[in-house]
Amino acid sequence: CYRENILKTAKALVEDTKLLVSGAASSQDKLAQAAQSSASTITQLAEVVKLGAASLGSDDPETQVVLINAIKDVAKALSDLIGATKGAASKPADDPSMYQLKGAAKVMVTNVTSLLKTVKAVEDEATRGTRALEATIEYIKQELTVFQSSEVPEKTSSPEESIRMTKGITMATAKAVAAGNSCRQEDVIATANLSRKAVADMLTACKQASYHPDVSEEVRERALRFGTECTLGYLELLEHVLLV
């Protein structure tokens, strides 16, 4: 029942995505309608996903988290897409903002597809861990793309904060190694959820610290490079766990 509702609402959201992209080249009214429609659809989708997560029961909280994370990714992608649509509105087809719009639309569709795969995997206990890990790998890749962009963070933080956030990576690494050894679905799911948060927190703290007023350009470049290398190394670890 929940799966059918999620599938139907997700399809409606993909249609909204198409309208948003085409709306950038049409009137402000059509663009506003597309944005309102997508906002309404994502609210409906979040509700049915939450109901689906609740139906799993409280004895499987890690799988509930996987489902909630999947809808959060879709909502974030939609927010980015609406922002890109506003930026591309009334611009010529070869304007850089149009390429950004296409990229945002691609991420949006990727995240909706990921959500549907996750919903399907939840019904099959044998694939839950694998799917959770695949979704986390995709999420980390998207976060790394944002990290590597030229966008300056809205706020800065101290280098100490960045160092503190690396402890989460150490804990998640130990958990990933243990999950690779045990191959238990629940361990793999827990690893996926922990890895997702640890890497995202590290990337945010690293970028904020690298733009601290006291940091030189040379140190900033090094910090950003090491943040990238750390993430790529961690992705490799997760790929190995997935292989196992």
Automatic annotation (TrEMBL):
The keyword Glycosyltransferase does not apply. It is found in: Cytoplasm. Residues 8-119, 129-241 form the Talin IBS2B domain. Keywords: Cytoplasm. InterPro entries: Alpha-catenin/vinculin-like_sf, Talin_IBS2B. One of its GO terms (cellular component) is cytoplasm. One of its GO terms (biological process) is cell-cell adhesion. Gene3D superfamilies: Talin, central domain (1.20.1420.10). PANTHER family: TALIN, TALIN-2. This is TLN2 protein. The lineage of its organism: Eukaryota, Metazoa, Chordata, Craniata, Vertebrata.
